[in-house]
Amino acid sequence: MELFDSHAHYDDEKFDKDRDYIIKEIYNSGVTKFVSAGYNLKSSKKGIELSNKYDFVYTTCGISPNDISHEKDKVDSQLLQIEELAKNNPKVLAIGEIGLDYYWNKENKDLQKYVFLKQIEIANKLNLPIVIHTRDAIMDTIDIIKNTNFVKPGVFHCCPFNKDLVQAGLDKGFYISFAGPVTFKNSKNAEEIVNIVPLDKILIETDSPYLSPEPNRGKRNDSRNVKYIAEKIAKFKNIDIDQVAEITYKNARQVFDIK
Q1: Which of 5, 112, 147, 213 is positioned for an S-S bond with 180, CB 3.0–4.6 A?
Q2: How far apart are CA 134 and CA 251, in angstroms?
Q3: pLDDT tens-digit map of 181-196
Q4: pLDDT tens-place string over residues 14-23
């Protein structure tokens, strides 16, 4: 059984002491591909560095809603740099993670929307999908998704368990990615949401080093734990974990155009 972790962060300082060791252990465990996703310029560059070092590692480039400068001129400069990084590095699979976050940042909603839309434009220009982060911004995210054209479908990463959001994404051809919260005992609607999403639109991820799934909740997360996400989806869908592994691997290769 081979697994594909569609979203993790191996640029994070929590991996500074053992990054190379962990990456090799991940591969040896059967997670034979993963995406180390960018969320600002520094992490996007680090993701490219890791993807060039390891054949089985890929990356994304983007500025997350939690990493937006309050100076618009600086934002525009960073967006140009993101475009150049994505254009000139073949292992950059998508523009992301991008989106809206009103949990951590409520004062710059208009700027968040501006940066989100600008990065969608970059993705369309480069013929790339996008990877969306959304937190406490369901309605504005739905509004943007419904009223925007996408050259390629993208991914709702660590998707909130909200039926309207999931349906809006599916209607636009997006893939829905599930992470550690799908295993949490106190997660509301998890089973219902998983069963709304067709198998050919499901991805699995860890969002490492964050959001460790049960039974490792509270510990540093890494891609070896993606098997617990697959197990939970298999249980909810009443199918074998091997089938979940196979279809999510295929889905990740398809959305990210990995030959």
Answers
A1: 213
A2: 21
A3: 999 999 989 999 999 9
A4: 999 999 999 9
Print burial letters for 139-149: b (CB count within 10 Å at least 16), e (below 16): ebbbebbeeee
Contact in structure between 206 and 225 (CB atoms under 8 Å): yes
Q: What CATH fold (topology level) applies to the domain 3-7+14-255? A: TIM Barrel (3.20.20)
**Cα→Cα distances 43→32, 48, 63, 146, 241, Å:** 22, 9, 9, 29, 32
User: Can you list the residues of the chain whose pLDDT is less than 50?
Assistant: none
Nearest to 61 by CA among 90, 33, 34: 90
Q: What angle do CA 82, 86, 88 make, to 5 degrees?
A: 120
Q: How far apart (Å, rounded) are the C-alpha atoms in residues 210 and 185?
A: 17
Query: Tokens representing 119?
Result: 């990065």
